[in-house]
What does this fold into?
Amino acid sequence: MTTAATERDALADTVARVAADVPGVAFLRPGLVDLLRAPARTGPPRAAGRTPAGVRVSRASGAEPWEVDVQIVVHRDHHALTVARAVRDAVTAALSGAAPGARVTVTVTNAV
It folds into this structure.
């Protein structure tokens, strides 16, 4: 695994952990593979090289800032916009040292 891929995976893990801890977040939006494997999985471990469900971290080139996309599902008793803003602020703060200037986008995909 390259250094860039290792850095991307570390950032993605941080983003997933921070976003999931924000009050009002039910969970990060699972991908198709995560849905199919859900009964067999008991915890956060994932295949090497796969970012956590609901998180996409990328950059166009080494000089560009990281682009972070987080897809969340919120609890129905929380205001979706407030939760999305809180996730964006928490992720931006968490990445300020490792990825200064990262562009963070949060999408609310559902409410449960």
Q: What stands out?
A: The domain at 3-38+48-111 is CATH 3.30.70.1350 (Alpha-Beta Plaits). Residues 77 and 110 are 12 Å apart (CA to CA). Confidence is low (pLDDT under 50) at residues 40-47.
